[in-house]
Amino acid sequence: xxxxxxxxxxxxxxxxxxxxxxxxxxxxxxxxxxxxxxxxxxxxxxxxxxxxxxxxxxxxxxxxxxxxxxxxxxxxxxxxxxxxxxxxxxxxxxxxxxxxxxxxxxxxxxxxxxxxxxxxxxxxxxxxxxxxxxxxxxxxxxxxxxxxxxxxxxxxxxxxxxxxxxxxxxxxxxxxxxxxxxxxxxxxxxxxxxxxxxxxxxxxxxxxxxxxxxxxxxxxxxxxxxxxxxxxxxxxxxxxxxxxxxxxxxxxxxxxxxxxxxxxxxxxxxxxxxxxxxxxxxxxxxxxxxxxxxxxxxxxxxxxxxxxxxxxxxxxxxxxxxxxxxxxxxxxxxxxxxxxxxxxxxxxxxxxxxxxxxxxxxxxxxxxxxxxxxxxxxxxxxxxxxxxxxxxxxxxxxxxxxxxxxxxxxxxxxxxxxxxxxxxxxxxxxxxxxxxxxxxxxxxxxxxxxxxxxxxxxxxxxxxxxxxxxxxxxxxxxxxxxxxxxxxxxxxxxxxxxxxxxxxxxxxxxxxxxxxxxxxxxxxxxxxxx
Amino acid sequence: xxxxxxxxxxxxxxxxxxxxxxxxxxxxxxxxxxxxxxxxxxxxxxxxxxxxxxxxxxxxxxxxxxxxxxxxxxxxxxxxxxxxxxxxxxxxxxxxxxxxxxxxxxxxxxxxxxxxxxxxxxxxxxxxxxxxxxxxxxxxxxxxxxxxxxxxxxxxxxxxxxxxxxxxxxxxxxxxxxxxxxxxxxxxxxxxxxx
Lengths: 530, 195
Prior knowledge:
The structure holds 2 protein chains of 2 kinds. Chain A has helices at about 10-25, 45-65, 110, 120-125, 150-160, 165-175, 195-215, 245-265, 300-315, 350-375, 380-385, 390-395, 405-435, 470-475, 490-500, 510-520; strands at about 1-5, 30-35, 85-90, 95-100, 185-190, 220-225, 230, 275, 285, 325-330, 340, 440. Chain A is built from 16 helices and 12 strands. Chain A is an alpha/beta fold. In chain A, helix 1 (about 10-25) crosses helix 7 (about 195-215), helix 1 (about 10-25) crosses helix 9 (about 300-315) and helix 5 (about 150-160) packs parallel to helix 7. In chain A, strands 1, 2, 3, 4, 5, 6, 8 and 10 form an 8-stranded parallel beta sheet that branches. In chain A, helix 1 links the parallel strand 1 and strand 2. By secondary structure, chain B is mostly helical. The interface of A and B includes residues 375, 491 and 497 of A.
């Protein structure tokens, strides 16, 4: 069993990235996902939960039981496609969110309650005063810890003492190793900011403590994704709320936190694998929000790197040598001004190319799906093409469009595809914006409305469908080649040939058509090998 | 591309050959000649009988005259058929040229066609070529009747045959073009064929 816990807003963004990769088909077969955030209206968290919900719904529609339109029910799986391969569920049911301090208007003072002589220690550790930015003891926690991990660490530790479905499920899962199961737990958060920096080591320690309590010494592996500062805000204006995480404080804060981790990790075994991921120079967000729904930052490339690392951890959770020192991984790219597929971190060239093929194929599939689906949308659209060979070959003429319409599952798939395209568009835009870097992974900007850089909290809309010209241009050119000497990719005409000549057995209803679209969106010709 | 061209050529060849057989069987019989042509030969015998020429005195000579006239009519019919077959095979190059041209264009379009509208994009051209072929057939029908290019074979036949056979030719044009392009069209490009 694999478990992923995203701590804070950045942790939620990493969970979102993992879900997006799962849509693409990268990830473990089963995954339990949870969020830890004091600020439950945090925009990053909300978006991650929405994306996760979309994934779960779409997967149920295409891979669950019942229904007339399914993917991959082939007995031998020969023509199954990896999309929605991972069975993702939330920890503790519902939305998978654990809010350490549930009460409204919680403050550190209210969490600790009445204190006797401990009040002196409390005063020594946490500031109080009339100036808003200095207040810590009575700072409202509803919108997170505002870049103060020491507040978060105290609040989370207190919160974990209580009873919750979230912790109950984690504990039960950990106990399942007694029956021979293996459990991999990954915790993702940021070293800067508030909730993530506070929760990241605290949660890991809480889990280690529970392992000790249950006397479990094997088959549970804990990994960590620690995001170093990779984006920043300008300082707030004088008339704005001053009690916010500041970009210029992040580096200092991170340095201090890293020293703390160094000391902690050299004396305790907490993580079996730890990934530190940063970016230079920072991505600059041209706005600032202290928390709540407006703290909805655009997806950024380091988060995809983090998701890659998580996928790797779940595949290879430890070195194989139980006595080995805990592994600490650092990811860094070669050049500040350009990024291509070979720059994506991977354990080997083969793994790197596999990632390129999977992501590239999915993005091309996304363009193909957006285009071809529009011919199935309504009776008049279908009537225009129903005599065409591809339509007949894909079995679309034999479907009962009235009583067993695929509209609902197609819409769910469309929603998840939009989520991935939106995610990729944001990453692409911000890398290109950052010092004019050349971005040689993909170009999906034509599939979305222009991204408003002055309002990074607004997610771009994805076009409902593509015109003939845009489809052909996008499909043929949206994915950059892995290497300059790589052979040309199959084009949209090859895909059309495939739809006309081949049908994929082993799927139900319109699933065969989806599988064919995916298969013929490959980045390499079927007769090509590496 | 070569496959499409071969398929079209094969279909065209088969249809034209079949049509040629039909033409050959229909033509060649003196009965299809126009009355004017028959009369032209036979009136010599008739006018000779009433005019008191050298036929007057001998019934056998009169019969011989008719035999000569029938032979001449049969030769005339054979000559008309021969001219018609030359005309037929010459005319059949029209659907061959335009059909091959269309098959070629279809094959070239197939390489890059990636959308349902692109699959059907050559349909207007298919109709325009059919129109050109039909006009070609009409022009050739005119040439069969007027001018000496094909010995005016059309004008020597009865009206129903003189115009009926060119109409049949146009129908054969249509069949060879339609069947040929249909068979030659790559599966993906079938929507460019209007049926």
